[in-house]
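Researcher: Let's do a round of design. I'm pasting the structure tokens now; please hold your answer until I've finished.
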């Protein structure tokens, strides 16, 4: 699968740790969605989170959220988290 990952897709250490903690089956689906996001083919709403530093974007991936930002041409994945953890993740990122 590594050969499929676009060169311009990067994960922060936090995002990599987040992904590593997710069960393997869901992790595979999330990786597919990260690749689709990098190719701008991930369906669904992508919204800007103005309350966080840098105003990152958030994409939905099933019961998970992908917090990311574009630094042309690089897509940086900042965090991957379950929807139920959103408020605690946002609190941590505001510090």
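Researcher: That's everything. Go ahead.
Model: Designed sequence:
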């Amino acid at each position: 699968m590594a050969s499929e990952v676009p060169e311009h897709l990067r994960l922060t250490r936090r995002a990599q740790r987040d992904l590593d903690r997710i069960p393997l089956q869901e992790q595979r689906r999330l990786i597919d969605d990260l690749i689709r996001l990098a190719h701008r083919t991930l369906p669904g709403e992508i919204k800007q989170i103005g309350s966080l530093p840098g105003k990152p974007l958030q994409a939905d991936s099933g019961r998970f959220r992908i917090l990311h930002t574009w630094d042309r041409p690089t897509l940086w994945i900042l965090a991957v988290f379950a929807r139920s953890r959103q408020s605690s993740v946002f609190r941590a990122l505001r510090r």
